[in-house]
Specification:
Strand content: 15-25%
Strand order of the largest sheet: 2-1-3-4-5-6
Number of strands: 6
Distance between the termini: 29 Å
Largest sheet: 6 strands, antiparallel
Structural class: alpha+beta
Radius of gyration: 15 Å
């Protein structure tokens, strides 16, 4: 399996939606080896105990970003900004696995190809078309795209506080 992101800036934070709005916490994914480790980290860092809606947002510098949506016992829903993220590091491999994507070593040079659940934010106010458009905007860094998404979903202040 590829290594952890090295030489790249990694940021990961989880956000939970409550009656009072969104609350967030930075999440250390350094020890994540299995897909279940990601949800365990979200639960631990946010202190979740029920059916709360939570989002795990990860960005690897100018390479890729991912969003995992957790709610109760439902299977996580995952979007990855580039299906090839699994070829670059083990964290990318976990997210592409959760998204049900098999990175294609033969297609590594075909450019950015978003993958996973394009609808995971639709009920929160960001359509699949908008998510796809944001993800593929040329010259925009993953951190900037996540900032726009956070603004649209009303947790930008929490995201900025954690960065």
């Amino acid at each position: 399996m590829p290594s952890r992101p090295s030489g790249h800036s990694l940021f990961s934070a989880a956000f939970v939606r409550t009656e009072a709005g969104w609350s967030g916490a930075e999440v250390d994914l350094g020890d994540a080896e299995l897909a279940d480790d990601l949800s365990d980290a979200v639960q631990e860092h946010l202190g979740l105990d029920g059916d709360e809606l939570s989002l795990l947002c990860v960005e690897v510098e100018d390479e890729w970003f991912a969003i995992a949506r957790y709610q109760g016992d439902a299977e996580p829903r995952v979007f990855v900004s580039d299906a090839q993220a699994g070829l670059t590091d083990s964290l990318g491999a976990l997210f592409t696995e959760l998204a049900g994507v098999a990175p294609d070593k033969e297609a590594a040079d075909l450019g950015v190809r978003p993958a996973g659940d394009f609808e995971l934010l639709s009920d929160l106010g960001l359509s699949s078309e908008e998510l796809l458009e944001l993800s593929m905007e040329e010259g925009v860094l993953p951190a900037d795209t996540l900032s726009v998404i956070a603004e649209r979903l009303s947790f930008a202040d929490e995201l900025d506080r954690l960065r």
